[in-house]
Amino acid sequence: MAEGKVVLWRPMYHPQGHQMLAEAGLDIVIVDSANADEIKQVLYGARALWVRTPERVTAEILNSGNELVVISTSGFGTDNVDIPAATERGILVVNHQGFGRVPVIGVGPVWNQQESASSWAWTPI
User: Fold this and answer.
1) Is the peptide bond before 54 cis (omega within 30 degrees of 0)?
2) For residue 93, which of 105, 85, 102 has the smallest C-alpha distance?
3) Cα 120 to Cα 62: distance, rounded to the nearest angstrom
4) Label partner for 67 (CA 20 to 30 A): which of 82, 87, 97, 104?
C-alpha cells in the first residue's frame, strides 16, 4: 500500500525522479497538461504537489487539495503559487533554488557550436 499520494503537474526532468518516489512507497500521479481542471480532479487526497513553471497554483486549485501538506516548485521562485492561499490552508511552499542553473550553463556551449552547423541537433552532455 502506498505511503501517500504525490501529484506531479508535468513530469519531472528525469524519469529517475518518478522511480525514486515510487520506490519510497508513494503513489505518483502525473498530469502532463496545462488544464487546471485535470489537476483539480486528481488533487483530492494528495499530500504533495510538485509543479513546474509556468503552471500556476491558484486558490481554486488548492481547494481541491484537502490533504495537501506541501507544494514544491521547480524553477526560480514561487511566484506561480498563491502563497497567501497556501498559508491560509497551512500548506508549506518550497522551491528548488538554483535548480536547472548547471544544466543550462552546460548546454550553452554545445548550442553555440551547433548553431553554426548546417543543421541543429541536440547533443546531451
Assistant:
1) yes
2) 85
3) 42
4) 97
Amino acid of residue 122:
W
Q: How far does the chain reach from its first CA to its final CA, in angstroms?
A: 38
511552499: which residue's cell?
93
State the pLDDT at residue 75: 72
d(CA 92, CA 107) in angstroms, rounded, equals: 33
> Among all chains, which residue has been given the C-alpha cell 538554483?
98
The Cα diameter of the chain in Å comes to 55
- Over residues 81-98, the pLDDT tens digits come to 999 999 999 999 998 765
Residue ranges and CATH numbers for the domains of the chain are 4-100 (3.40.50.720)
Kindly give, in sequence order, each residue whose CB lies less than 8 Å from that of residue 43, ignoring residues fewer than 6 positions away.
Answer: 7, 49, 61, 64, 65, 68
